[in-house]
Design brief:
The chain has about 500 residues and is mostly helical. The chain contains 20 helices and five strands. Helix 9 packs across helix 16. The two termini are about 30 Å apart. The chain binds zinc ion.
Length: about 500
């Protein structure tokens, strides 16, 4: 009966939304949970704090189980609602596209060259908008809510978890955890056969170049040298037994990834976003761990590299033009908030929940072994989840999915490590490098402004519209959630 009622409400809402020109066929019912302000306001405030702050605060907070459960239900309903809205927008753009194409067909004999061009630009723009609405619905909005849900779980569970960790330290049972032999990093055996992965990595790179997916490399010798030195310093003190090959990609995307065989790709946006050397070291160490533990090889069971790169190129093409991919796809990718992280096969990158946990643990060990503050990786993750805003972080979060266990296990590993008297957090070399990188970014931005999209079938159109989103703004603003809060209660 209740389900039936919901369905009716949903249809009614749908009709109302059609009138207000928002598409339908998706969940567009606003959250049903009548959340009282007494629950919503204080919890909402804490959910906007960073993971590291919450580790400190959670043991002092006193929310009841029913308050937590209410909030969780509200967040899940809000997520569905928000996703539904953007799926609706995407349907709407689809309809407008169909209409524009029908108009084009009908009017074609009468159109002047400039009118035709205008139509082409309109179609191109609608495709770009549809792509953005889809990324928001499929990636950015779910990730924003996953971070909130993980933080809620942290408030709920961390106090007990923290007690359990302290007990494990007290009775020495923490020494029985997997990969507890951290003093033997570099000498222990993780998974044999790393050298067999080199040819796979080389093949993947070749295929990515052919598909036009790889952005150009950064040419500034000093910047390249700095990141190369940092990467190799960590690799030397890790379990990686193949040479590390570092490549710096000149792209705004905030991400880094490792291909099988020790091929580490670091994107300019990531280095720009890192605030200190230990954050960058933490990310590099995490990626080195993927290569050392052969995660890509272990997940790429059936598919061939050619087929996964081909698929990536197809995704790029569909997102951008509804057509075929080719040289220069990457430039078009940078128009929106797309990037390699949204395209590449997670299996090739060795990303799964289980392997992320393992790469976090090993990466924290490698950073620690290289005398870096082992919190660096968490602080970077936190920055992405809190200040960068979720839309800028879609690439990062696709390849580094946020979930509670991940944050807890990372924190746990740090607590289990022997404390050193001093950790490297910042260095003057890092700060000098950032100054040089800023020049590279400025120059690249200027060049990109003048470069027509190599991929766009119709050149010289105005740049595609962007769905309005201010970096760092809370996701609720994007969805204009009608908060069903009984204020003042
Ligand atoms: Zn990872």
């Amino acid at each position: 009966m209740r389900l039936h009622l919901r369905a009716v409400i949903s249809i009614l809402v749908c009709e109302a939304l059609i009138l207000s020109s928002v598409g339908c066929g998706h969940r567009t019912v606003a959250p049903q949970t009548p959340l009282s302000a007494a629950v919503f306001n204080p919890l909402q405030e804490y959910l906007q704090k960073s993971y590291l702050e919450l580790f400190q605060l959670a043991p002092t907070l006193e929310f009841s189980q029913s308050q937590i459960d209410e909030m969780r239900k509200y967040l899940n309903e809000s997520k569905d609602y928000c996703v539904g809205q953007f799926k609706g927008h995407s349907d709407q753009y689809d309809k407008q596209l169909e209409q524009a194409q029908a108009d084009l067909k009908q009017q074609t004999p009468k159109l002047s060259d400039s009118q035709r061009k205008e139509k082409h630009c309109q179609i191109q723009n609608l495709r770009a908008l549809k792509g953005q609405a889809e990324i928001l619905a499929d990636q950015a909005i779910p990730v924003a809510y996953e971070n909130k849900l993980a933080k809620l779980e942290l408030i709920e569970k961390w106090p007990d978890q923290f007690k359990a960790i302290k007990a494990e330290i007290a009775d020495g049972s923490y020494k029985k955890r997997r990969w507890s032999d951290v003093e033997d990093v570099g000498f222990r055996q993780l998974f044999p056969g790393q050298q067999d992965d080199i040819k796979d990595g080389q093949e993947a790179i070749q295929q990515m170049k052919q598909a036009g997916l790889l952005p150009p490399e950064i040419e500034d010798k000093e910047v390249v040298e700095y990141v190369n030195t940092l990467g190799n310093r960590i690799a030397k003190l890790s379990d990686l037994r193949v040479p590390l090959k570092v490549t710096l990609l000149n792209s705004k995307e905030i991400n880094a990834f490792a291909l099988p065989g020790g091929f580490l790709f670091v994107q300019r946006g990531l280095i720009e976003a890192a605030e200190d050397e230990s954050q960058l070291a933490g990310v590099l160490a995490h990626e080195i761990a993927h290569a050392a533990a052969r995660h890509g090889h272990r997940l790429m069971t059936k598919a061939t590299i050619t087929s996964v790169i081909y698929q990536a190129a197809q995704v790029a093409a569909v997102l951008l033009t509804g057509g075929i991919a080719g040289i220069g796809t990457y430039y078009a990718l940078q128009y929106g908030f797309y990037g390699l992280g949204l395209l590449l096969s997670l299996n090739l990158l060795g990303v799964s929940r289980e392997f992320e946990l393992e790469a976090d643990q090993l990466g924290i060990q490698y950073a620690w072994n290289s005398d870096y503050d082992p919190n660096g990786f968490i602080r970077f993750f936190d920055k992405m989840a809190t200040r960068e805003g979720y839309v800028n972080g879609v690439s990062w979060f696709r390849t580094h999915p946020p979930f509670y266990q991940r944050m807890v296990d990372a924190q746990r590993e740090i607590l289990f490590l022997r404390e050193k008297s001093e950790y490297i957090v910042q260095s003057t070399e890092f700060q000098e490098m950032k100054k040089k990188l800023a020049k590279v970014s400025k120059k690249t931005d200027k060049e990109e402004k003048n470069r027509p999209s190599l991929k766009a079938p119709e050149q010289d159109c105005p740049p595609p519209d962007k769905i309005e989103y201010e970096p760092g703004q809370p996701i609720e603003k994007l969805c204009k959630l009608p908060t069903r809060i009984k204020l003042g209660q």
